[in-house]
Amino acid sequence: ARFRREAQILAALNHPNIAGIYGLEEHGGTSFLVMELAPGPTLAERLVRGPLPPREMLDIAIQVCEALAAAHEKGIVHRDLKPANIKVTPGGKVKILDFGLAKSVGLVHSETTHGQTGADVTQEGMIVGTPSYMSPEQAGGKTVDKRTDIWAFGCLLFEMCAGRPPFIGESSLSTIAMVLERQPDWSRLPAATHPRIRELLERCLRKEPQRRLQDLGDARLELEEIRKDIARTPQLPKELDKSDPAATMALEADPPPQPRAPADATQALAASAAANMLPEPVGINAAGTPPAPTSAVKPRGSLAVRLVLFAILVVLVAVLAYALYDLLAPRQRLAVLPVVVPQSSSPDLDALAKSLRGQVLAALQESKELRKLRKQAAPAQVGLDGKSPSDLGKQLDAPYLLASEASLDANRMQVAFKFSLIDTRLSRTPWSQTFLLALPLGSEEEQKRWEQEVVREIVQGVQGSLAK
Description:
Mean pLDDT: 76
CATH superfamily of the largest domain: Transferase(Phosphotransferase) domain 1
């Protein structure tokens, strides 16, 4: 049967970015595959939060290219590449699922190869794929090859940049019509999209297969060059040490530019030092000749030595002036509140909430953008608890609050942690984000990686909001 034949072909695929197939089993007349268990969320779940940052997007896209190129070399076409069929492990490794086993989702014509029975091929009148990611030839019922995966990759790359696929209608039929007749809405791409990514998307999403990009190996090389172009962008540290979770902490955000009196004092002191160190002017007598040196006048050393001493003095004075300004600049406080968990939560969830909060505190302490931090003890029960953010901000003497809460979704078997940065003076929320974690909790190593990823995004969100 086709299922068994395709399973045998796919089992021969050995690539780190393709979920492995370990065997084909049968129970009670039903055949099923034994596949590799890939931890982490699907790319579709990640895209719920919006477009991906350029670095993360490029890392995922390059790995997808490598996996598909390896499969294409063996004559295998996925036919249903989409975010829901891609998992991203906590370590950032991509795993492509359902490889070559696409599901029928609509109606269209499909060709039959001579000598194959109806049970061995896709039946006439069936679409194989997902409308938003189907190539025009796939949606039109024509023969497909690896170029249909290249089209789907273009849709995937577009969605990672824009937060939505290039073709999405009110129904499957309207989406298919858009794929066949319309061009992508390029205006949905962010203005900051790298121009070479835009060019690559245009090559992948050409409706005529013969004019489309012909090999994903070329796409991988292009993406690697783009990644080099943006390699200078600084990244947050990947490892964050845990600390004792104090209830609140004061941080100093960068204040607006102000007149810096110490700088004027620095210039005056430097000028005075220069006047004392430079050689004294030599007088000219009435005869037009300089006076003869006397034994009381002694040389002060070479000019180079004096210039070095002068430069050292300037640096020391500048450092002192900056330190004084840094010390006397106005402070702003951020109160990191305890994570609110449901009353019926398990001890594991309580421990996870405390660990996550402790790592957020430690990460904010180590942030260079928010470098001036000091802890301030407060009761662990401090929280909003019906209080207005303004009242709690006054109680803690903190213009900003970082509030968080955990909620369980028994139906979806997941827990959601929502973190919100609150400006107590303006009663607004400049940043908020929700992080999902599947239940039951995974291994300690998987949980640690998830926590680190969440902490990085929280610190990035707080920094971006307070720097505005």
